[in-house]
Design a protein that fits this description.
By secondary structure, the chain is an alpha+beta fold. A 4-stranded mixed beta sheet has the order 9-4-3-11. The chain has a 3-stranded antiparallel beta sheet with strand order 7-6-10, covered by helices on one side. Strands 1-2 form a two-stranded antiparallel ribbon. Helix 1 packs antiparallel against helix 2. The two termini are 58 Å apart.
């Protein structure tokens, strides 16, 4: 339709310029037009050519708008962590004496003690992300330890992170004393396991 309008407008402009007896776009225009007819043809021809350009611009803008790529929803969670055992030890000091003695006796008897990691989870994506502490694992060599959380404000809890927000808190894990010491010295690693989220690490 746009090219038809342009072609017809071009024929009218040519008619206004030469008066008649010419060929354009493979079509032959015979006969001649008077002065008034030529002026009328020029005005209508210019209008139709400008109209065709306007329609082409509109079609282009519509095509560009329709082909724009919609933003992709991405769930990206950045995970960072440090040793949180000193903070855990401070909490243990507030326990009743009997509980502290029981924890110490159990560690000596089994060679397994409690340690903590301080985890920071940052939502770098553009959709909310559900965060679960139980998705965290502490690794040392071929061994892995699950973590636990406590209903305390210092500890990491289940939550929903909005884009651009972060949450941090402690999680507790058990390990042999030699492994726990090695992890605290930076020889372990932490993973967050959720196949619905792209996880990055600091």
């Amino acid at each position: 339709m746009t090219f038809t309008i342009f072609g017809f407008g071009a024929v009218l402009i040519m008619l206004s310029l030469v008066g008649g007896n010419f060929k354009i776009f493979g079509a032959e225009v015979s006969g001649t037009a008077g002065k008034i007819g030529r002026i009328t043809a020029l005005v209508i021809g210019l209008f139709m050519v400008l109209l065709s350009f306007g329609l082409m611009q509109f079609d282009h803008s519509q095509h560009t708008t329709s082909t724009k790529t919609k933003p992709t929803n991405k769930a990206i969670l950045n995970v960072a962590w440090t040793d949180g055992t000193p903070e855990l030890q401070q909490l243990v000091l507030t326990l009743p004496e009997e509980q502290k003695l029981l924890l110490g006796y159990n560690a000596l008897l089994t060679g397994i003690d409690y340690y903590a990691a301080k985890v920071r989870l940052n939502n770098l994506g553009n959709v909310p992300v559900n965060v679960y502490p139980q998705n965290i694992l502490i690794h040392f060599g071929n061994e892995s330890a699950t973590v636990k959380t406590i209903d305390h404000w210092l500890f990491l809890q289940n939550t929903t992170l909005q884009p651009g927000n972060y949450v941090e808190g402690l999680v507790v894990y058990q390990a042999r004393m030699d492994i726990g010491a090695a992890i605290r010295l930076g020889q372990g690693r932490l993973s967050y396991n959720d196949n619905t989220v792209q996880v990055t690490y600091n």
